[in-house]
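To whoever is covering the structure queue this week,

Two jobs came back overnight. Logging them here so there's a record in the thread.

Job A:
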Amino acid sequence: MNNEEPRPRRSFNSANNERHVSSNRPNYNNERRTQSENPHYGNSSDRNYNQSSNDYRQWNGEGNSMSEDGQRKRRPRIGERVAPGGNRNYAGGGGQARYGNQNGPGGQKKVLKKKKKPFKQIKYKENADPHAPIRLNKYLANAGVCSRREADEFIQAGVVKVNGEVITELGTKITRADEVMFHDQPVQLESKVYVLLNKPKGFVTTTEDPENRKTVMELVKSACQERIYPVGRLDRATTGVLLLTNDGDLASKLTHPKYEKRKIYQVWLDKPVEMEHMQAIADGIELEDGEIHADAISYVTEEDLSQVGIEIHSGRNRVVRRIFEKLGYRVLKLDRVYFAGLTKKNLSRGKWRYLSEKEVNMLRMGAFD
C-alpha cells in the first residue's frame, strides 16, 4: 500500500519580489467547456431517432412522395425536366434534372451559407492637443508615410513642405494644425489602430523579411489600411500574444526597458525541471549579458514537471530560452500568454481582433504592469 503523502504544489519566488504564480496562477491553457457546462452536449432529447423508418426517410428528404390520387410518384431521372405542374420532359431534350431555384435533390432546400461580415474597424478617441508641437519626422511616421529615419532623409532631400515652405532642417517641430505636403501631396495623420494577434509558429515578427519568410503582417493584412507594425518581437518559433499598432508613443512605452511591462510565458521543456533549478531561476542566474531572475516561476501541473510557467519583466532578446539553455534544458515550445495586461483568451491561434476602447485607455494610462 502506498503511504506517500500527496506532493504539495511548489512555487519559487525571487527574494526581491514576493509575487508568485502558484497561489494565484494564471490559466496557461485555453479553457474548454465541459459536458456539464454545455446543455446541448451529448443531449439526444432534441433529436428524435425513434421515429419510424418511413418518417425518418421523409424527414431526411428520402423516399418517394404520394400524389393526390394515391399513386406513388417517382423522382425525376437525370436528363428529365420537370414542369412546375409535374409534367415531365415539358421542354424535351436532355440535360440534368431541374428541381427549381431553391430546392435541391430530394426536395430539400438548399442552405446558403452566409458570408462572414468583415470586422468593423474601431475608431478610437484621440486625446492629443492639435496645437502641441511634434517633430516633423515623427509626424510623417505617424501618418504612415515612412519610418522616422526615412523621414529625415526625405526632409534633407527637400521633398517636404510645411505651410507651403520647403523644410530641410532636421528636428523641425510643427503642430497637427499645420499643412504638410510630401512630394506635393497632402499628408494627414492616420487614425490609431490597435490589433491583438495570437501568433502561430513559423512567422517572423517583422514588417519585412529579406529571406522572404512568412511574417506576422500576412496574418493581419485585412485588419486596416493604416501602416501598423509589431510591438516588440517574438521568435519565429514562439507563439502567443502580440500587439500591432501605429501608435508610436504607446509602442515605446511598452517596449522601453524602464517601463518593464509584465510578461508571462508557458514553457515546454525536453525533461522535468529540477527543483534546485527552479529556485536558481527565481534567485537569479548569470547570462552573457548580465544577471537575470524571474519574478515568479512554478510548475504548471504537478503531473508534468517539464511544463513551467514563468513571469518576467525583462525584454532582452530570447531571454526565456537562454535561461533554460543555461541550465541544460532544451525549450520544445514557448507560448506567451500575457503581455502588459493583454491575453489571448477566446482568440484562436493565427487569429486577431481589435483592442477595445477600455483596453487602449488602460494601456495609454500605463495601468497594466
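Job B:
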Amino acid sequence: MAATDILDLPEPDRIEGAPHPREAARLIGQEAAEQGFLQAYNSGRLHSGWLLTGPPGVGKATLSYRIAAFLLAEAPAGDGLFGAPPPPTTLAIPEDHPDWHLIRAGAHPRLFVVRRGPNDKGDKLSADIRAEQVRKLKGFFHLSAADGGRRLVIVDAADDMNPTAANAILKELEEPPARTTMLLISHQPSRLLPTIRSRCRELRLAPLPPPALAGALEDLGLHSDTPDALAVLAGGSVGGAIRMIQGDAPALYAALVTLLSGLPRIDRQGALRIAEGCAGKGSEARFALTLDLIDLFLSRAAKAGLMGEPTSQGAPHEARLLARLSPHDHAARSWADLQQSLSARARHGRAVNLDPAALILDMIFRIEETARSITAPAD
C-alpha cells in the first residue's frame, strides 16, 4: 500500500468511532459472500475484477481486506512437501502473519488503496476520487512487479470516482497486469459505468440481521439495550448503528413515534420539543439524525401500505401505528410522495441554512396534513 498523502486529514474510508476495516478482528454475517469468493478461488478461475456491493457499513471493506490478506499470504505453487494442500474453506489467516501486520500498518508493498485524497488546498478531503489517485497505479504496478507475487488493489468507494477516474479504472480492468486482483467497493453499483460492472464479478453483501449486528458492535465495545430496534434504524449497517448509538437514535425515534401516534392530530408542544432539540450550536448532528429518522418513518409507512404491518419495529408500538396510517396502496403512494417531497425540502433547507427548528416543525406539520388527507371520509 502506498503511504497516505492525506497527512493529518481523517481517513476517508474510516467510520468515525470505529477502527479502520483493515483492523477489524473478524467479519460477521457475510459468510455467503466469503464462500462465493472461495468457490471462485478454488475453481482456479479467479476473476481479476470484483465488485463488492451492498448498503454502507455491512462489511464490504472488511471483506476486501480479508480477501487481500488471504491472496497476499498465498503460498507459491509447489511449496507443499506432499502435494497440493486441500482447498481452503475460509479466508482467515493467522493474526500474527507478516502480511496481516503490513496490511494493518498500511505498508504492504503489494496492496494499493484508491480512495479520496486531499482537495486542491490540501485542507480537506476531496469530494470525489480524482484521476490522479488512479494514475498512481502505474507506479505501483511497476514497483511491485519485481517479486512476482500477487498484487491487490482496493477502490473504496468506487461510487466516489469522478468520470475521468472511472475511465482510468476501466482501462486497468480491461487490461489487468498479471496476478493482479482489483476489489471495487460500491454502495450504489447502478451509479457505476456499465462497462465497469461488466468487467467485474459481483459479491453482494446483505444487511446484517440483529444478532450479527449485535455481535459486530460487541467487537467494537459497543452495546445497545434495544438491538432489534437498532437493527431497524440502522438498516443492518454497522456504520449506521454506530451513528445511531452515538446520537441516541432509539430514544429519539421512540419520541417521534410517540408524537406521531396522535395522528391525524399532532401535539404542538411535543412537536416543538423535538424541533427545538435540533436548534442551537452543537446540534448539527442531532438535526441531521432527526431528518434521517423522519425519512425512515415515511419510507416504512409507504412500505406498510404495500406489504402490511411490519414484523420488526424501530420503537414500541411503531408497527401498529404504521398499519393504521397506511392501510392500503393509495396511502402508500401518499407517504412515498411525501417522503420524496420532504427529502428535497430537507436538502434545500440545509443548502440555504434554513432554521433547523422551523424546518423540522414544517415537516411534522406536513406529515399531519397527509395523515388527515388519508383518514378523511370520502365525499
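Note for Job B: Residues 284-307 form the longest helix (24 residues).

Please reply-all if you pick these up so we don't duplicate work.
Q.
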